[in-house]
């Protein structure tokens, strides 16, 4: 368990209302590609980055509350949602560049990044590539901090994935998938915790172009063995960067043990576990999620990045390992992840 007591912070006062017009999808053309995004509110910038196969719509119910105290920007990553889906680079590094360029066109110089799943990996990569533009990190069931991932995603990374995904559009397949997920929910399995969201993923792949973008994105981060890139080897660079990890203890996509490994690898980070939640804790308990985000952003100061400090962190390198710590399963797993990290680096 986490070595800090659970905190349920008090909600901040509502400062302004958000009109429906602010929540509509907007578009900017960057490098010739149309990128969709939602933008609302006033105040410090808060960027919400969704996961693979998802879109900014996943944050829609949360944006009005967050926009009372922040300027909220929620993009549809390239290849997702209403953004263009070209035959392009869908690596986490390319996504981080895309987020930077979109923010630049919107006159946003720095922001707190909230990343879910793949979006968590993109947020970490953004902080690594552009630390001077990153104020805080909030990582929600984030990818890129461990090797394991749901076997279904590993299977979709294999040859023949296009054919596999195209069968989901056959008559009656959506009904069958829905029945299976409802059964998983009735049996109280971890997979069943995210049944509605997983069914939405089927709907998000209506045509060959969408399926191709999904597969290209997945293969950039996952192979038959599991997650193929990591930030664990560079997590020590978050020293001085306010970082909070939010995870469901019944996550069937990215296991909760990854949260503990990231918590140990990120100096000064904070870990909050959502009991009974799956891969989408911000859907399972939106009130707690909102309260944590608001409390964290209001009680921490933005990272004070300097070139000199960055140089010293790089020269010192990643702290050794779990040597000298108790010989527990969690510590052994964390050591193994760190050992494997150099093989799965995103750069």
SSE layout and pairings?
Layout: E1 26-30, E2 33-40, E3 45-49, H1 63-66, E4 71-75, H2 92-105, E5 111-116, H3 118-129, E6 134-140, H4 151-156, H5 161-166, H6 173-186, H7 195-203, H8 208-221, E7 222-223, E8 226-227, E9 243-248, H9 257-265, E10 270-274, H10 281-284, H11 286-299, H12 307-316, H13 329-341
Parallel strand pairs: 3-4, 3-5, 5-6, 6-9, 9-10
Antiparallel strand pairs: 1-2, 2-4, 7-8
Core attributes:
AB_hydrolase_fold, 37% helix, 15% strand, alpha/beta, hydrolase, AB_hydrolase_1, disordered N terminus, hydrolase activity, globular, Alpha/beta fold hydrolase
Could you give a quick summary of the protein structure above?
With 347 residues, the chain is an alpha/beta fold. It contains 13 helices and 10 strands.
């Amino acid at each position: 368990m986490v070595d800090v007591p659970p905190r349920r912070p008090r909600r901040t006062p509502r400062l302004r209302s958000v009109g429906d017009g602010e929540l509509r999808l907007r578009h900017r053309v960057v490098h010739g590609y149309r990128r969709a995004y939602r933008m609302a509110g006033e105040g410090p910038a808060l960027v919400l980055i969704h996961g693979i196969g998802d879109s900014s719509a996943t944050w829609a119910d949360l944006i009005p509350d967050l926009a009372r105290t922040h300027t909220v920007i929620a993009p549809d990553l390239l290849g997702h949602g209403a953004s263009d889906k070209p035959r392009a680079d869908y690596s986490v590094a390319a996504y981080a560049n895309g987020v930077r360029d979109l923010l630049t066109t919107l006159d946003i110089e720095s922001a707190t990044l909230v990343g879910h799943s793949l979006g968590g990996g993109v947020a970490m990569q953004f902080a690594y590539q552009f630390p001077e533009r990153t104020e805080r990190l909030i990582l929600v069931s984030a990818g890129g901090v461990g090797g394991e991932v749901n076997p279904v995603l590993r299977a979709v990374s294999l040859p023949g994935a296009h054919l596999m995904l195209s069968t989901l559009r056959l008559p009656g397949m959506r009904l069958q998938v829905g029945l299976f997920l409802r059964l998983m929910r009735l049996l109280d399995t971890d997979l069943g915790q995210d049944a509605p969201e997983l069914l939405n993923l089927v709907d998000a792949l209506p045509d060959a172009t969408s399926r191709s973008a999904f597969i290209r994105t997945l293969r950039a981060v996952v192979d038959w063995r599991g997650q193929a890139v990591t930030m664990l080897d560079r997590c020590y660079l978050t020293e001085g960067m306010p970082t909070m990890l939010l995870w469901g203890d019944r996550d069937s996509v990215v296991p909760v043990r990854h949260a503990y490994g990231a918590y140990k690898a990120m100096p000064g980070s904070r870990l909050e576990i959502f009991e009974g939640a799956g891969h989408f804790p911000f859907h399972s308990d939106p009130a707690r999620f909102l309260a944590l985000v608001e409390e964290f952003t209001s009680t921490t100061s933005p990272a004070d990045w300097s070139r000199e400090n960055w140089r010293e962190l790089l020269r010192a390198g990643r702290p050794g390992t779990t040597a000298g710590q108790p010989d527990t399963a969690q510590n052994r797993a964390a050591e193994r992840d760190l050992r494997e990290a150099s093989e799965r680096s995103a750069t």
